Structure to design on (234 residues):
């Protein structure tokens, strides 16, 4: 379906208004195998499955699920997705324990009032940069601490240009999940240096061309960012 298409080989298949109001924006990448970037809060998984079918793929053939950080609106469906598809689950080592232990405080599951099932992380990103290889391409993983200690971004050089999956670049920030504003600012500068043609953000949508990507990140850096005393829904 055209309305789900971001660019060649990338589709938006989940999010508020697309699957469930509690879901972050969920992106599908075709690199020979199917890769899902985040999977929503849980209740929207069946709609996400349907949307994957609508863009021409079998959701049960999902190969890899990348969890960009450990908040429930991004990871809530992970256990169900893994059961249904047998996919490998990828996350950064600093957020992996909260995912594997279903830590309700760190994941803000209590704040959302959602059930959360623990799921094993099959591949834990250890370095500042990493690479996942597929039969028809590769995905670069970048550690971007700030929102959480184990936040990561995904970079895909698609036929249409460079796509940056930078979920929740806007925050929010709270000590309860280890936010670090100084680390976040450094991460944003690193992302701007990539010169991405598309930004797939976690809640604000898709930005393109490269000038719009840069402007969005610059706006985040130029607006006051506060450390909230308690978490708020993303």
């Amino acid at each position: 379906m055209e309305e789900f298409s971001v660019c060649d080989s990338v589709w938006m298949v989940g999010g508020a208004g697309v699957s469930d109001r509690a879901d972050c924006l969920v992106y599908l990448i075709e690199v020979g195998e199917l890769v899902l970037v985040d999977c929503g809060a849980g209740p929207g998984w069946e709609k996400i499955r349907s949307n994957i079918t609508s863009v021409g793929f079998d959701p049960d053939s999902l190969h890899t699920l990348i969890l960009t950080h450990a908040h429930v609106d991004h990871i809530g469906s992970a256990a169900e997705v893994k059961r249904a598809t047998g996919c490998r689950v990828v996350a950064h080592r600093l957020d992996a324990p909260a995912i594997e232990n279903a830590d309700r405080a760190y994941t803000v599951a209590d704040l959302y009032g959602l059930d959360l099932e623990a799921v094993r992380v099959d591949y834990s990103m250890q370095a500042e940069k990493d690479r996942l290889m597929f039969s028809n391409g590769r995905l670069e993983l970048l550690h971007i601490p700030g929102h959480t200690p184990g936040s990561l971004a995904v970079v895909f050089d698609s036929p249409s240009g460079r796509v940056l999956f930078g979920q929740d670049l806007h925050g929010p920030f709270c000590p309860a999940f280890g936010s670090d504003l100084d680390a976040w600012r450094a991460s944003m500068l690193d992302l701007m240096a990539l010169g991405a043609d598309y930004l797939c953000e976690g809640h604000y949508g898709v930005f393109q061309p490269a000038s719009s990507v840069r402007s969005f990140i610059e706006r985040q850096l130029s607006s006051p960012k506060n450390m909230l005393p308690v978490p708020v829904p993303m």
About this structure: The chain has a mean pLDDT of 96. The longest strand covers residues 137-143. Residues 210-222 form the longest helix (13 residues).
